[in-house]
């Protein structure tokens, strides 16, 4: 990329950070620096040396755009320092997503909003991103009324520790039998956990609430969405069983054609063995995959479908890098920086 | 059990057959014979010697009730011979479930129907059984209108071969890396497969269609149900994310109280770590477990919940043994036999 902005990856040693570095290299970002906690400072990530993500280091003003993939608490603490130094901060945590005036961006869906706000751009939840890629073109065609989602979320949604726990617990099933649950509230090896993030007063989990609120913010506040979010023993790839009720008639064939032409979407929908996307096969891919598109006859204008994407890529790192590209292509990173 | 009927288990060497034998012994059935294909004939199952399930052996008239846990094709072939010999046949396959005049029975829900029909009683699908245990008392209270289900079905739903395939594939991930898919159309280790049974013309799978048709037959033909059925890498225990729309208002608290008093149901619903059922924990248990009961605000009278049960027990073997007990307690097995 000619004159690609300089990028600082904060949380570079985590599961999303690792994928972010791969994507930046592949997409021509040639001025990359890596930041993490004091524990990892000094470590080598290929040719790059990890710098400590101190407020001072981030506020120094020598990086155009910071990609944050750290926890919500760390983002709240560190993002303001990056912005103070004049950088644009693209934040993958939940810290700023629902804050008024801060754009919540999926480039294929509402990329234009990335340039409307101030110097923070928020990246949605890993299930919201692929879901809105699918819902947006269908909403434009027939008007979404209600959306019901049941998720099948891989352990990498909980970071490297989550992946390590599934790996270790499963191995223990074959060896010592000594299963230890630390990262997840229950055993995840050969099991399911219908609980992601904390419980809210109404019995929904915060993960479920985020999907609802973020979809409204990104697409349309009139959309009614309800979700059940479940952790499954898969390493990479989030899947969603989705039922949608529309204002206007739309057939499965029409939806299939619309989604075939939708940016970032790939339809795999043959009614035969393997004629659908599975998370293992989609891991490492960039698109959102849509399968099992069929009419839901329980309501007048209903569709059901199966949506899968790589939660570390489109669900996190890739979406953030695409936001950086949106900003860069309009030369807004430097403009924003000059205006600071 | 005094004067328990004599029972023949057909398909005794399979995953469901094995559990059936455990349950019969524990529940006092002391005259049990075991049948299987020619391949297994002569094998010992504890003190019992496997007999070959030939048409002649089943028609001999020396068994009161046969419990069939074989495939749909084998049931179609063998059940008529058992009935011809004067026995009652309780069939776990899909062969007779939707046939008019043949009762489709979940004892807690419609046990009375077991005694209305002829000498065949059908056992519903492994997801339909726990679901109807939950839906029946709620339907009585507030009138079901629409039900949407996303399932998370364990590999034992595909029998012992399914369990062996998950075991072998997962082991191969840690050792040879050589993953072979034979029983399932795609790799199941650390993966999901949104496809159970064959595809139908409308894009639904037969598993999804069965849940719809069987729920209508058991509960009420006016109920509209749609399902997405997904195989998950869990050995035992089927889970279901369920959204229900009612005719009348019903709160989450009301539903929780109704389900606490419903036969065969256990509510585990605390809004804290582990305050819900997971399939690994429910494996080996008899009840249907209900968790995550909450209001679905996308519709006027809506509820969402999480339902888990042991698919080999309540979803199959236990339900069939309970049907045998229904018949026996009314001395109907011998009455039916005499009438033959």
Topology:
The structure is a homodimer of 340-residue chains.
Chain A: E1 7-10, H1 15-26, E2 32-36, E3 44-45, E4 48-49, E5 51-52, H2 55-58, E6 65-68, H3 72-84, E7 88-91, H4 107-110, E8 120-122, H5 128-142, E9 144-152, H6 159-174, H7 206-218, E10 224-228, E11 238-246, H8 252-260, E12 265-267, H9 279-282, E13 288-295, E14 302-309, H10 313-329, H11 332-339
Parallel strand pairs in A: 1-2, 1-6, 2-5, 6-7, 7-8, 9-10, 12-13
Antiparallel strand pairs in A: 3-4, 9-11, 11-14, 13-14
Helix pairs in contact in A: 1-10
Low-confidence stretches of chain A: none
β-sheet strand percentage of chain A: 15-25%
How many domains would you count in the coordinates of chain A?
A: 2
The CATH topology of the largest domain in chain A is given as Rossmann fold
> What's the gyration radius of chain A in Å?
20 Å
Q: Helix count of chain A, per DSSP?
A: 11
Structural class of chain A: alpha/beta
Helix content of chain A: 25-40%
Which two chains have the most extensive interface, and how many residues on each? A-B, 56 and 56 residues
CATH architecture classification name of the largest domain in chain A = 3-Layer(aba) Sandwich
Oligomeric state as shown: homodimer
Mean pLDDT reading of chain A: 95
What is the molecular shape of chain A? globular
Order of helices and strands of chain A: EHEEEEHEHEHEHEHHEEHEHEEHH
């Amino acid at each position: 990329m000619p004159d690609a902005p300089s990028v600082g990856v904060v949380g570079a040693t985590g599961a999303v950070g690792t994928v972010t570095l791969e994507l930046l290299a592949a997409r021509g970002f040639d001025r990359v620096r890596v930041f993490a906690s004091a524990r990892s400072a000094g470590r080598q990530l290929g040719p790059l040396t990890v710098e400590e993500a101190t407020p001072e280091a981030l506020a120094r003003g020598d990086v155009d755009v910071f990609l944050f993939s750290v926890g919500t608490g760390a983002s709240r603490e560190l993002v303001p320092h990056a912005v103070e130094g004049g950088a644009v901060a693209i934040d993958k945590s939940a810290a700023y997503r629902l804050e008024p005036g801060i754009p919540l961006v999926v480039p294929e869906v509402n990329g234009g909003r990335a340039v409307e706000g101030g110097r923070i751009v928020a990246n949605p939840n890993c299930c919201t991103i692929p879901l809105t890629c699918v819902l947006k073109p269908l909403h434009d065609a027939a008007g979404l009324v209600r959306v019901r989602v049941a998720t099948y979320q891989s352990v990498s949604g909980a970071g490297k520790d989550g992946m390590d726990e599934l790996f270790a617990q499963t191995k223990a099933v074959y060896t010592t039998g000594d299963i230890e649950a630390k990262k997840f509230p229950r055993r995840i090896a050969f099991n399911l956990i219908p609980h992601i993030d904390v419980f809210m007063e109404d019995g929904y989990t915060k993960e479920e609430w985020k999907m609802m609120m973020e979809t409204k913010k990104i697409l349309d506040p009139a959309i009614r969405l309800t979700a059940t979010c479940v952790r499954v023993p898969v390493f990479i790839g989030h899947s969603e069983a989705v039922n949608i009720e529309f204002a206007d008639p739309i057939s499965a064939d029409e939806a299939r054609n619309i989604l075939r032409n939708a940016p970032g979407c790939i339809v795999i929908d043959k009614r035969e063995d393997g004629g659908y996307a599975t998370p293992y096969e989609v891991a490492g891919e960039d698109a959102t995959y849509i399968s099992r598109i069929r009419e839901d006859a329980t309501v007048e204008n209903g569709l059901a479908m199966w949506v899968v994407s790589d939660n570390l890529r489109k669900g996190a790192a890739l979406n953030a890098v695409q936001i950086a590209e949106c900003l860069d292509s309009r030369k807004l990173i430097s403009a924003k920086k000059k205006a600071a």
